[in-house]
Design a protein that fits this description.
By secondary structure, the chain is of the alpha/beta class. It has helices at residues 18-28, 57-62, 76-86, 100-103, 108-114, 139-146, 166-189, 199-204, 208-217, 251-261, 264-268, 275-280, 282-293, 298-307, 318-321, 325-329, 372-378, 383-391; strands at 9-12, 32-38, 51-52, 55-56, 66-71, 91-94, 119-124, 194-198, 234-239, 242-247, 312-314, 333-338, 342-347, 395-396.
Length: 401
């Protein structure tokens, strides 16, 4: 079966993480993503460690299934080439500071004149306009201003950033979703459109119950560590060999938990009779449960809890994650040949579609300029034109040409 986005050509001018994460999703789903990188060193993320034989692990994490074309952004001929490529593309993705693309003559209003079907996606820190429209934005700034850090950590720790660049990833996912919606709309209208979000907006859009508490009740959520903000007991507990997560979501689950742990008296105690009461007495419940959980291992407790229908699971480090039986069963790690590193393991796309199957990694993240000549030929340039662009140093070829 053809891949879902097969036949769509994506011009990826983005850098760092939000844009590349977006285009990686599109590439996983079958789009031909051309990663346009500035010469001579390419996208900034290539210089971020750690490294494997000189290759950035950070780069490897977000560039599977793409092709690399390198050109000189400083030359007018390089900018003209981007405009020419955009005229033959379905989608363009960029995450420069607001106004940068317009200053280069590559803004949406300009490019849509020659390609009205172009879907033009841009990701910014805070949006293209408004009070912060000209501010540069990065993940941790957005985490702080979105409220994410205010509800992450404990009262003792103070605000804590999420352990991954969730603002970048979230914005990338929202943008990929918006692009696909625009593709569907274009099938009816025949016209492209601008798709945009920001790191700040993407995170605010994910605040769900915590944000709604503020809007509806004026109740400002606090940091509560690993406990659930509105359900008890639900959170991290301590077993004999370390922490694990467990949730008793209903009164029936609560009674089953009490029976399993030998705390039957809590099930009938009015102070713990329902979730509202349990939330008032969260600390006492946690103390009593941890005293029992300390007698056995986290895996033993997990198995018994799951048998009763209660969600539970150990808290893993990264080494544990990739050794987990379910992670392996779902195929979340794939092996692909890299032109310099040999066979490498990469994370898989978590979506499973009949047209894709479990193998979502088709090609390794490209070497710098690995596909420059091939991409230009695919866009209709003949050999003489390609050689001329190379000879004038407008484009740069890579070591695997």
């Amino acid at each position: 079966m053809p891949l879902p986005l097969q036949g769509l050509r994506v011009l990826d001018l983005s850098r760092a993480l939000a844009g590349p994460y977006c285009t990686m999703i599109l590439a996983d789903l079958g789009a031909d993503v051309v990663k346009v990188e500035p010469s001579p060193k390419g996208e900034m993320i290539r210089s971020w460690g750690p490294f494997a034989d000189g290759i950035s692990v950070y780069y490897l994490s977000v560039h599977r299934n793409k092709r690399s074309l390198v050109l000189d952004f400083r030359k007018p001929e390089g900018i003209a080439l981007i405009a020419e490529l955009a005229a033959k593309s379905d989608i363009l993705v960029e995450n420069f500071k607001p106004g940068t693309m317009e200053d280069m003559g590559l803004g949406y209003d300009t490019l849509k004149q020659t390609n009205p079907r172009l879907i033009y996606a841009n990701i910014t820190g805070f949006g293209r306009d408004g009070p912060y429209g000209d501010w540069p934005g990065v993940d941790q700034i957005a985490q702080g201003m979105s409220g994410f850090m205010s509800i992450t950590g404990t009262q003792e720790s103070g605000p804590v950033r999420v352990g991954l660049p969730v603002g970048d990833v979230c914005a990338g996912m929202w943008t990929a979703l918006g692009i696909q919606a625009a593709v569907i709309e274009r099938m009816a209208s025949g016209k492209g459109q601008r798709v945009e979000t920001s790191l700040l907006a993407g995170l605010v859009g994910m605040l769900n119950v915590q944000g709604q508490r503020q809007l509806t009740l004026g109740d400002t959520p606090k940091r509560i560590g690993n406990d659930h903000p509105v359900i008890c007991p639900y959170g991290a507990f301590e077993a004999k060999d370390g922490p694990f997560n467990m949730a008793a979501l209903t009164d029936d689950m609560w009674r089953k938990l009490c029976a399993l742990t030998g705390l039957d008296e809590l099930a009938t105690n009015p102070e713990f009779k329902d979730n509202t009461a349990r939330m008032r007495n969260r600390d006492e419940i946690k103390r009593r449960l941890n005293a029992v959980f300390a007698s056995r291992t986290r895996l033993e407790w997990t198995k018994d809890l799951v048998k009763l229908g209660l969600p539970a699971g150990p808290i893993y480090d990264m080494a544990d994650v990739f050794e987990d039986a379910q992670v392996k069963h779902w195929g979340m790690v794939e092996t692909v040949a890299h032109p310099k590193l040999g066979d490498i393991k990469l994370m898989s796309n978590p979506l499973r579609l009949d047209s894709i199957g479990k193998e979502t990694v088709r090609t390794a993240p490209p070497l710098l300029g690995e596909h420059t000549a091939a991409v230009l030929r695919d866009f209709g340039f003949n050999d003489a034109q390609v050689d001329d662009l190379i000879g004038k140093s407008i484009v740069q070829t890579g070591e695997a040409q």
